[in-house]
Design brief:
- 36% of the residues lie in helices and 18% in strands.
- By secondary structure, the chain is of the alpha/beta class.
- The strands form three sheets. The chain has an eight-stranded parallel beta barrel, surrounded by five helices. Strands 6-8-7 form a three-stranded antiparallel sheet, with no helix packed on it. The protein has a two-stranded antiparallel sheet with strand order 1-2.
- Strand 7 and strand 8 form a beta hairpin.
- Helix 1 packs across helix 2, helix 3 runs parallel beside helix 4 and helix 7 runs antiparallel to helix 10.
- It starts with a strand and ends in a 10-residue tail after the last helix.
- The relative contact order is 0.13.
- It binds NADP nicotinamide-adenine-dinucleotide phosphate (NAP).
Length: 331
């Protein structure tokens, strides 16, 4: 495993972080519903592999991901840096409508009152007295940044939180949040198929010394195997809403897999590793947040850190992907 300091903090995090959205189940990840036993096995494997960094959020499985982690972390909380989020909640006590899912209405609220309540609720579900890094899940312009950052700084002073991050933000948001404190990382969508938001963000994170944490690097599995795009997903499953399953993108993804297949032989790696190694090459302080529900996928992903992708091969991968890329994606 390789490690990196998150932003300007002293939090020493594994470059591969364990994304725990999928373990929350619900209609979003409907083909598997992990239980505490499975999450414990994942944490055992993470420890074995040197992964010391977990990302979750209140809304992943409407509390389920945090609850399962809280149970599985009993007796070993200090083995991991634990990151969760604030702003999206299903309390129905204010905020702006964000989405409806599994019978719950989720609102976005970055007021001081709401983010403090979010943190209290997460501490309880996670059965811990502190969160290492709290991420504003969806940056929102309806409350002053000064108010949101003020509340987060108070949580740091109270010892409930150690560092702050932003997600689903723009470079100008990072500039604004940095006026009122320090942002250790931004957690943003970035993949070979949807790379443009990240590319436009790199100069601003470099300016502030902020870690760029990637989510969706494997596009929820679509970048792991050619036939993934031919699967069908039940209603509500997040993967059924992505653009990859529709032509002409679907066909272009098949062509991309064909074009890069020789590289999987050259580097003796999986497709997932090839695309993860490509992402790691794009920015030096990049943290690879990858979703796992199975020990095998967690083990495989860690192998991407051993790949030294040549510039020429990185270019080949980019050219092969170009016809399948989208400029924007909303998850
Ligand atoms: N801030 C936000 O708005 C936001 C949005 C989306 C995600 N996130 C966070 O980012 C994390 C990662 O993103 P993601 O879950 O969307 O998707 P992802 O990392 O693009 O893909 C996860 C999927 O890829 C599979 N996988 C992982 N490594 C693999 C490998 N080496 N070979 C084959 N398959 C592999 C996993 O399989 P298995 O499930 O079978 O193990 C899972 O289905 C989430 O868990 C969540 O914590 C944040």
């Amino acid at each position: 495993m390789k490690y990196q300091k998150l932003g300007k903090t002293d939090l020493n995090a594994s470059v591969v972080a364990f994304g725990a959205w999928g373990i929350g189940g619900g209609s979003v990840w409907s083909d598997m519903n992990p239980a505490v036993k499975d999450v414990s096995n994942l944490l055992d494997a993470a420890k074995d592999l040197g992964i010391n960094y977990i990302d979750t959020a209140p809304v992943y499985g409407t509390g389920m991901s945090e609850k399962l982690l809280g149970e599985a972390l009993k007796g070993r909380r200090d083995d991991f840096l634990l990151q969760t989020k604030c702003s999206l909640n299903w309390r129905n006590d204010g905020g702006n409508f964000h989405y409806e899912r599994d019978g719950y209405t989720v609102n976005n609220d970055t007021s001081a009152r709401a983010v403090k309540k979010d943190v209290e609720d997460s501490l309880e579900r996670l059965q811990t007295d502190h969160i290492d890094l709290i991420v504003v899940h969806y940056v929102c312009k309806d409350w002053p940044v000064e108010e949101t950052m003020g509340a987060l700084q108070e949580l740091i002073e109270e010892g409930k939180v150690r560092a702050i991050g932003l997600s689903n933000s723009q470079p100008a948001d990072l500039d604004e949040y940095e006026k009122y404190g320090t942002v250790a990382l931004v957690q943003e969508q970035f993949s070979l198929l949807a790379p443009y938001h990240g590319i436009s963000y790199f100069p601003t994170v470099a300016k502030h010394g902020t870690t760029f944490q990637v989510y969706g690097v494997l596009e929820e599995g679509f970048l792991t195997a050619p036939d993934y795009v031919d699967r069908t997903f039940p209603k509500g499953d997040v993967r059924g809403k992505l653009p990859w399953i529709h032509d002409p993108i679907r066909t272009n993804i098949h062509k991309m897999f064909e074009a890069v297949q020789p590289l999987t032989e050259k580097y003796a790696c999986s497709y997932a590793n090839l695309f993860e190694a490509w992402a790691l090459k794009q920015y030096p302080n990049l943290n690879l947040l990858t979703g796992f529900r199975r020990v095998e996928t967690m083990r495989d992903t860690c192998k991407c850190l051993d790949i030294e992708l040549s510039d020429e091969d990185a270019r080949l991968i980019w050219e092969a992907a170009k016809p399948a890329q989208v400029r924007e994606i909303d998850k």
